[in-house]
Amino acid sequence: MSTVTTHHPVSAGIDPRGPRVAATLTSVVLALVLVTPHPVAVALLAAQTVVFAVGAVRGVQHTPYAVVFRTAVRPLLPPPAEPEDPRPPRFAQALGLAFAGVGLVLLAVGATAVALVAVGLALVAALLNAVFGLCLGCEMYLILQRARAR
């Protein structure tokens, strides 16, 4: 992923492999939302919405998925070539929160078909990151930063 230089210093970078692991776990949860019965789907989507909220508010390095990465995956890997700016993945978490939140509200009010479309769109974004390393939210963040710099 490319980075944008801004006047705001990044206090600490993150391991760029962490968000990809998180996207894999997110993909599993969102896929389960699409194929499980309604009460289970609501609980799973609520849990994923909380994970997105933590990532959006506190940063991706504070999510439960980041804990899994740090304790179970990171020790098996060599150090990253260089740390990544945490702001683009944090923005991506905010977008995930928006889609999951809309899906959760729609599921709660019985608009199941539209809710599953919102969840499906979030799943596509998570899968693109998990499988190909393409973070759509991160790319959107960078585009917005470039536009703002002009």
Nutshell version of this structure?
This protein has 150 residues and is mainly alpha-helical.
Describe the structure.
The protein is mostly helical. The protein has one domain (17-76, 85-149). The protein is built from 6 helices and no strands. The longest helix is centred in the middle third of the chain and has 22 residues, at 87-108. The protein is globular, with a radius of gyration of 16 Å.
Report the sheet with the most strands, covering strand number, pairing sense and barrel closure: none
Counted up, domains total 1
Structural class of the secondary structure composition?
Answer: mainly alpha
Q: Which H/E pattern describes the elements? A: HHHHHH
> Which stretches are low in confidence, meaning pLDDT under 50 for 5 or more residues running?
1-10
Give the end-to-end Cα distance, rounded to a whole number of Å.
Answer: 21 Å
Helix amount: over 70%
How many beta-strand elements? Answer: 0
Label this structure with key terms:
150 residues, mainly alpha, disordered N terminus
SSE topology sketch:
Elements: H1 17-35, H2 38-57, H3 64-73, H4 87-108, H5 112-132, H6 136-149
Helix pairs in contact: 1-2, 1-3, 1-5, 2-4, 4-5, 4-6
